[in-house]
Amino acid sequence: MSTPAAATAETEGVAARARALTKAYGTGETAVLALDSVDVDIARGRFTAVMGPSGSGKSTLMHCLAGLDSVSAGQVWLGDTEITGLKERELTRLRRDRIGFMFQAFNLLPTLTAAENITLPMDIAGRKPDREWLEQVIDTLGLRDRLKHRPAQLSGGQQQRVACARALASRPELIFADEPTGNLDSRAGAEVLTFLREAVDRLGQTVVMVTHDPVAAGRADLVLFLADGRIVDEMPRPTAEAVLDRLRLFSGGPGTDAATAEDGTPDFDPLRKG
Ligand SMILES: Nc1ncnc2c1ncn2[C@@H]1O[C@H](COP(=O)(O)OP(=O)(O)OP(=O)(O)O)[C@@H](O)[C@H]1O
C-alpha cells in the first residue's frame, strides 16, 4: 500500500540507502570505476554481509555509505539524512554521532583499559555515555570481568569484542564492520560473530559487515554479492554452505585471470550469474 503511513514505515525500515552510487578513482586511462551505479537499501535492525572478490568495491561501498569517502555521482542517505553534499564538518559530526566503526585501522589504544577504549570516542566528542545502555552492551559482549584489562592482556577475540563494544557504545544507527574476524582463529571469530548477531537480535542494532569468509557471511540476515563495482546478487537467510556454493557458481568464469583471490576465496564472474 502506498499510504503515507506505509511510506513512512518503509523509510523507517531503512538505515542507509544509496541510489546510482558511483565512485571513480583517478582520471583518464588510469581511472578505476570502483562502484558502478549501485542501488542498495540497508535494512534497519538487520545484519547485512557484503562479499565479493578482491577489488570488487566492498570497502568503497562501505566507505561511501559511512560518509568516509566522497561519491563521484549518485546519492547516499543515512536514515532520512542525505549525506552526499554534506560539508566535511557535518560529515564528521554525523559519523561521530550516528555511526559505529569496527575497522582494523581503528585499533584499540594499548595504554588504555578496555573500559577506557570503549568510551574513548564518546569522551573525545565530550558526550556522556548512557550508563544503562553501556552496561547492557558490556554484559551482552561478556566483557564485565575484562574492563580493567589492557588490550595486550586480552585475547584477539576479546579485543574484537571490545572494538565491538566501542562501536556500540554510543548506540549508533548503523555499525560498519570491516573483516571483523579477519585476524582471528575460527573460535575467536565465531565468538565475535555471535556477539555481532546478539547486537542485532538483542540490542536491535543494524550491522553491515564486509567479509571474505562464508562462515561469517552465513551468520548475517542478508548477503550482498559485489563484482566489478556492482551488486550482482543477494542471498536472504544465508548459510555458510549456500554462500560457498554461490561463490563456486560464480568462480572461474571466462575472462577471470584467477579463479581464486589471494586469500583463497573463490573469485567469481558476474557474467555467469543465473
Ligand atoms: N584510493 C584509491 N585510489 C585508486 N583506486 C582505488 C582506491 N581505493 C580503491 N581503489 C580501487 O577501487 C577498486 C575497488 O576497491 P575496494 O578496496 O573497494 O575493493 P574491495 O572489494 O574492498 O577489495 P578487497 O577485498 O581486496 O579489500 C579496486 O580496483 C581498487 O584498486
Automatic annotation (TrEMBL):
Nucleotide-binding among keywords: yes
Phosphoprotein is among the record's keywords: no
A matching Pfam family: ABC_tran
Segments for region (Disordered): 254-274
A single GO molecular function term of this UniProt record: ATP binding
SMART domains: AAA
PROSITE patterns in UniProt: ABC_TRANSPORTER_2
Annotated ranges, domain ABC transporter: 16-253
Top-level division of the source organism's lineage: Bacteria
Keywords from the named record: ATP-binding, Nucleotide-binding, Transport
PANTHER family, sorted: ABC TRANSPORTER RELATED, IMPORT ATP-BINDING PROTEIN
This protein's name: ABC transporter ATP-binding protein
Source species of the chain: Streptomyces noboritoensis
